[in-house]
Backbone:
């Protein structure tokens, strides 16, 4: 990296980017051209004392700018309407630049608006950008792949990648490298749910009063770097976490053979077999249906190593006791499946307060309901009993071999969320998944946590990265799940990829997906029955069975025989 000075401006030249830095501007250059002009200012807005509204952080006009060219560090000190002291820092490295804000004072941060300044009248002042397309690594059931026009704001609350990797990367007309803005926080500081992009060229987070300043606080960093494409931007994002030691990459050691599947899950089977007198397909989660599903699969020469009992095998979501009408002997069923060489996973719904005492919950203003607080001591003790009962082989327990953890997107949002520990957003979900994992592994060390967070801090917590639901209307199921496998595989590099069962469309679309799953992860089949608009032929089922056999034989060679077989 080379730094020179000319006329009060400092020119920083890195390996694949350049900056000019002055008292009032950070100008980012790629291929010799200015592509983003950033104000070296940010607003750290506070919540009010009642935590119902926020106060706007307004900077004074005077700026004290300094440069340490030997270290590549630039600072701007300003007066703030809310904080006793406020300093902006830009650290330059050969391959990236890192920007963050340090404040002194007391208060709860409502949001951080990076590269934005409010004038004395409350008007927003920001920079400029030359981007034509942005990408945020978030996917939706309808097939949105995360791309968006950079001329429009991107303020997404994730529903499948919860949380996503917090970065936006941009394409620039006529310039090959992309420019990426990534939010990187230390462990304990991910008290937000999103990183929003504003086309006026600023970014913001939503701490919503859950990041507390009591003396001094430094914000999460915005790291600026280039990337060859969207996936490379994700690879570099994950590396910022793993290589710096913020979090581990996960367990790279050997895994039990059964973890590799194949998987059969009954979610779509419950829909396919839904009867007119059954109002919700969740009520089809019953022993007779799953017994019959396994029989149908075996008749098609399909032999799953994992069977997932889906929503709603339990009587109440919160306490997770097997429904006495639909699952009168869940332990007996699971043990019978074991005799067939099939490991049973149980679907588990996060956050749901059904049959949970109100005092163990917090208010979610987004959904206008109570949800469980995974940091509340009372709920943690209750959860310990629940998860042990689901996984343990002890008398009175169900002896399952894994949990399919779902509904992360129902996490509580807003200023009114008051958890026992004060944690919020990605940090609160991290505590939840971590606790579930710890209890499950204590009961059975080889138990699998199958879940869908898509951020590096979860890499050591998730055994199976589940790629989640898909509508299939676009007739590109295979391409959609290959894309998802790249995203989740980047964030959780040591997790096995559960390809999930997102295909109930046309025969061609479904077959392309089912026959291509093994190239990217664990094959997962959600049904054995016909649908009104989808009926696979005997020949097509035989092709799927052949693919499963090739995959299973390969896994047997690579990872050894399953102890149940």
Residues:
């Amino acid at each position: 990296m080379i730094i020179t000075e000319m006329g009060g401006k400092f020119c920083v030249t890195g390996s694949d980017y350049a900056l000019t830095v002055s008292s009032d501007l950070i100008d980012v250059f790629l291929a010799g051209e200015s592509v983003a002009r950033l104000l070296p200012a940010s607003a750290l807005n506070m919540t009010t004392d009642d935590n119902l509204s926020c106060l706007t952080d307004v900077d004074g006009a005077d700026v004290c700018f300094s440069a340490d060219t030997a270290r590549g560090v630039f600072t701007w000190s300003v007066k703030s309407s809310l904080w006793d002291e406020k300093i902006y820092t830009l650290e330059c490295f050969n391959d990236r630049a890192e920007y963050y804000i340090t404040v002194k004072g007391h208060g709860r941060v409502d949001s951080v608006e990076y590269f934005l300044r409010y004038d004395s009248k409350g008007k927003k002042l920001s920079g400029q950008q030359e981007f034509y397309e942005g990408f945020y690594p978030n996917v939706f059931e309808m097939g949105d792949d995360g791309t968006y026009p950079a001329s429009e704001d991107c303020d997404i609350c994730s529903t499948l990648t919860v949380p996503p990797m917090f970065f936006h990367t941009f394409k620039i007309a006529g310039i090959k490298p992309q420019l990426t803005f990534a939010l990187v926080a230390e462990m304990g500081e991910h008290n937000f749910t999103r990183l929003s992009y504003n086309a006026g060229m600023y970014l913001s987070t939503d701490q919503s009063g859950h990041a507390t300043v009591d003396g001094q606080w430094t914000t999460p960093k915005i790291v600026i770097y280039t990337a060859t494409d969207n996936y490379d931007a994700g690879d570099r994002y994950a590396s910022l976490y793993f290589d710096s030691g913020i979090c581990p990459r996960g367990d790279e050691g050997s895994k039990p053979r059964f973890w590799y599947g194949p998987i059969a899950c009954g979610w779509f089977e419950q829909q396919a077999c839904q009867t007119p007198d059954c109002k919700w397909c969740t009520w089809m989660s019953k022993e007779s249906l799953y017994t019959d599903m396994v029989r149908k699969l075996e008749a098609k020469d399909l032999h799953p190593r994992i069977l997932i009992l889906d929503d709603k095998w339990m009587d109440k979501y919160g306490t997770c006791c097997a429904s006495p009408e639909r699952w009168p002997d869940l332990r007996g069923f699971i043990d019978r499946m074991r005799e067939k060489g099939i490991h049973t996973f149980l679907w588990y719904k996060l956050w749901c307060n059904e049959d949970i005492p109100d005092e163990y919950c917090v208010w979610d203003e987004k959904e206008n309901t109570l949800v469980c607080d995974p940091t509340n001591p009372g709920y943690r003790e209750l959860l310990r009993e629940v998860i042990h009962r689901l996984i343990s082989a002890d008398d009175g327990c169900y002896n399952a071999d894994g949990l399919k953890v779902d509904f992360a997107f129902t996490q509580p949002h807003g200023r009114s969320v008051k958890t026992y520990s004060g944690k919020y957003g990605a940090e609160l979900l991290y505590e939840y998944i971590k606790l579930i994992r710890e209890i499950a592994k204590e009961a059975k060390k080889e138990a699998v946590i199958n879940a869908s967070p898509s951020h590096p801090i979860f890499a050591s917590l998730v055994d199976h990265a589940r790629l989640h639901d898909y509508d299939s209307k676009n007739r590109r199921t295979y391409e959609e799940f290959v894309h998802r496998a790249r995203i989740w595989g980047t964030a959780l590099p040591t997790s096995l990829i559960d390809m999930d069962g997102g295909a109930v469309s046309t025969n061609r679309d479904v077959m392309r997906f089912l026959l291509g799953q093994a190239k990217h992860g664990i094959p997962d089949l959600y049904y054995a029955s016909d649908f009104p608009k989808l009926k696979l032929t005997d020949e097509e089922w035989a092709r799927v069975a052949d693919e499963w056999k090739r995959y299973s034989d390969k896994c047997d060679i690579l990872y050894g025989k399953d102890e149940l077989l």
Q: What stands out?
A: The longest strand covers residues 97-114.
